[in-house]
Amino acid sequence: MNEENCNVVGRIVNCAVEEDVLTDGKPDAAKMKPICFDPCQHVYRLMGQEVAKAFSCGMALKKDNQ
After folding, report:
1. Which pLDDT score is estimated for 15?
2. What are the sequence ranges of the domains in the chain?
3. CA distances in angstroms from 56 to 21, 59, 63, listed in the order given
């Protein structure tokens, strides 16, 4: 822990989920309904909605700018 800014650095050593939150053998965030902390509003927020496919959504932008 960095005492100056309260940042904590760690290493993930294991990850596990219940079988009922898997889709095609992979963890499904929509089924897991993970939460995250919003430090600006001091609330926990529900995550999980897909907004775009990673690494492919930017290709359309690249083509438009050429």
Report:
1. 87
2. 1-66
3. 25, 5, 11
